[in-house]
């Protein structure tokens, strides 16, 4: 029915032109740093509240356990949707990744918060925020976030818990991250140098330290000395004062104690007691260690399987899985990117969308929407809904393209996402081209208010994905969300 409706809506004047584009050059994207966020919200608290109330029934219908997952290469805008939904949920949980995930959210007054470890539900005073066992936690960094929130009146104490099974990320992991990246020379992964990969490596080799270990200072000190000795044996330039770090963590141990919990028991008991649980995915499916563009991936599993492992929640308990996708695409770091743009169009989209990394501050690579990648993410995760974000960034584009297939080096056209990196780097993208709407949609709050060409673009994405684009982002504020009827 969705496909039939979409086809009826597409007029003959909207029929796309289809062509292949050669793969982009390997030259790096450069752009001047944009100082001001041109997408800063200007809605009043009253307007935000009114729109939230209008959609309350929708948010309440999403089921008791809902996962919000990135479907591209990260930075899709997951934090905003989580922030909206958190008002309707009793538990908001992080399940994987670490401080390499940057989530930007806004409060009712338009104030901006950039979070890295603290779950985005922290602005909802009625929600318990959970950092699950699958997250790697840098405790000093986490407390920096907690202290910054406290200064603006947001108190995490009593409203946030961290799994005793979560592995700890130390400054030595950050040092190792930089040394490894330097060794790779021209084949760099593009790591954020936050120590995420080395921390997960410690976990995989079974010599990592978990948060619960901090309660036994003798065991903790011994484990940290072993980690430091291993790193010193591996890297000639490794510099790390392990004894100073041990002393530092004695104070941290006392402060973290009220936050430590058996979160596996907590979330499952909450589910058993009828509580609603919202899971905030970090990074994205195309960066998944198993399913992403390996080796240009993160070191955890942002796909739905990683959500289950990272919280200890069984797959059958998830009723709703929302895939978050930008109306175009971005990527930070190295790796194949078939629909990547360069030049004036890329610079224009980057400036309009303020596409600079929350964690790194680096200019993001820019590309058209890639339906081959999005459908691949849906194949793995089984999305029940799509949240199409930043549609307003396309307001000034006279022409908009969607990548619908790849032409392989042997001439074959496919809609399957290749696993081989060398193949991905050589594909030609088959595009459909659509006229833009050339009008400001940032104040639209209902489907009927959107321009016809914007509707047709959304319907075409929905048709290609075979999943409803239920939620459409038209700006950064909480209220800037259109719920499609």
UniProtKB/TrEMBL annotation:
<feature type="compositionally biased region" description="Low complexity">
    <location>
        <begin position="16"/>
        <end position="34"/>
    </location>
</feature>
<dbReference type="GO" id="GO:0046872">
    <property type="term" value="F:metal ion binding"/>
</dbReference>
<dbReference type="GO" id="GO:0005525">
    <property type="term" value="F:GTP binding"/>
</dbReference>
<keyword id="KW-0479">Metal-binding</keyword>
<comment type="subunit">
    <text>Homodimer.</text>
</comment>
<dbReference type="InterPro" id="IPR042109">
    <property type="entry name" value="Adenylosuccinate_synth_dom1"/>
</dbReference>
<dbReference type="InterPro" id="IPR027417">
    <property type="entry name" value="P-loop_NTPase"/>
</dbReference>
<keyword id="KW-0342">GTP-binding</keyword>
<dbReference type="InterPro" id="IPR018220">
    <property type="entry name" value="Adenylosuccin_syn_GTP-bd"/>
</dbReference>
<keyword id="KW-0658">Purine biosynthesis</keyword>
<keyword id="KW-0934">Plastid</keyword>
<dbReference type="InterPro" id="IPR001114">
    <property type="entry name" value="Adenylosuccinate_synthetase"/>
</dbReference>
<feature type="compositionally biased region" description="Basic residues">
    <location>
        <begin position="35"/>
        <end position="44"/>
    </location>
</feature>
<keyword id="KW-0436">Ligase</keyword>
<dbReference type="InterPro" id="IPR033128">
    <property type="entry name" value="Adenylosuccin_syn_Lys_AS"/>
</dbReference>
<protein>
    <recommendedName>
        <fullName>Adenylosuccinate synthetase</fullName>
        <ecNumber>6.3.4.4</ecNumber>
    </recommendedName>
</protein>
<dbReference type="InterPro" id="IPR042110">
    <property type="entry name" value="Adenylosuccinate_synth_dom2"/>
</dbReference>
<comment type="similarity">
    <text>Belongs to the adenylosuccinate synthetase family.</text>
</comment>
<feature type="region of interest" description="Disordered">
    <location>
        <begin position="16"/>
        <end position="44"/>
    </location>
</feature>
<keyword id="KW-0460">Magnesium</keyword>
<dbReference type="InterPro" id="IPR042111">
    <property type="entry name" value="Adenylosuccinate_synth_dom3"/>
</dbReference>
<dbReference type="GO" id="GO:0004019">
    <property type="term" value="F:adenylosuccinate synthase activity"/>
</dbReference>
<keyword id="KW-0547">Nucleotide-binding</keyword>
<comment type="pathway">
    <text>Purine metabolism; AMP biosynthesis via de novo pathway; AMP from IMP: step 1/2.</text>
</comment>
<dbReference type="GO" id="GO:0044208">
    <property type="term" value="P:'de novo' AMP biosynthetic process"/>
</dbReference>
<comment type="function">
    <text>Plays an important role in the de novo pathway of purine nucleotide biosynthesis.</text>
</comment>
<dbReference type="GO" id="GO:0046040">
    <property type="term" value="P:IMP metabolic process"/>
</dbReference>
<keyword id="KW-0150">Chloroplast</keyword>
<dbReference type="Pfam" id="PF00709">
    <property type="entry name" value="Adenylsucc_synt"/>
</dbReference>
<dbReference type="GO" id="GO:0005737">
    <property type="term" value="C:cytoplasm"/>
</dbReference>
<feature type="active site">
    <location>
        <position position="203"/>
    </location>
</feature>
